[in-house]
Amino acid sequence: MLKRLRKVDKGFTVFVNRGKGSHRMLALGANHYPFPCHDDGSEIHPRYLHDIIRRFQLPPDIFD
């Protein structure tokens, strides 16, 4: 996910210790979005990907 996001903007970062519990925090400037991540290789539910697209105003086909 992070590789695809960084193709759009190199400023995307993921913070491991800023989310609550098993959540991680995706950040771009002042915009933040927490998402669950139980393992580094785990799948992210499409609902969260849709929310990331909407929150950061990304192209709708970025995760296709």
What is the residue-mean pLDDT, rounded to a whole number?
89
Work out the count of structural domains: 1
| Count of individual helical segments | 2
**Helix and strand string, N-terminal first?**
HEEEH
In spatial order, strands of the major sheet run 1-2-3
User: What is the overall silhouette?
Assistant: globular
Pairing-aware structural class of the strands and helices? alpha+beta
Bin the helical content: 25-40%
Q: Describe the sheet with the most strands.
A: 3 strands, antiparallel
The N- and C-terminal alpha carbons lie at a distance of 11 Å
Strand element count: 3
Low-confidence stretches: none
Strand content: 15-25%
- Rg (C-alpha, Å): 11 Å
Describe the structure.
It is a single chain. This protein has about 60 residues and is α+β, with helices and mostly antiparallel strands. The chain has helices spanning about 1-10, 45-55; strands spanning about 15, 25-30, 30-35. The longest helix has 11 residues, at about 45-55. The protein is globular, with a radius of gyration of 11 Å. The chain starts with a helix and ends in an 8-residue tail after the last helix. The mean pLDDT is about 90.
How are the SSEs ordered, and which strands pair?
Layout lengths: L1 H7 L4 E3 L7 E6 L2 E6 L9 H11 L8
Antiparallel strand pairs: 1-2, 2-3
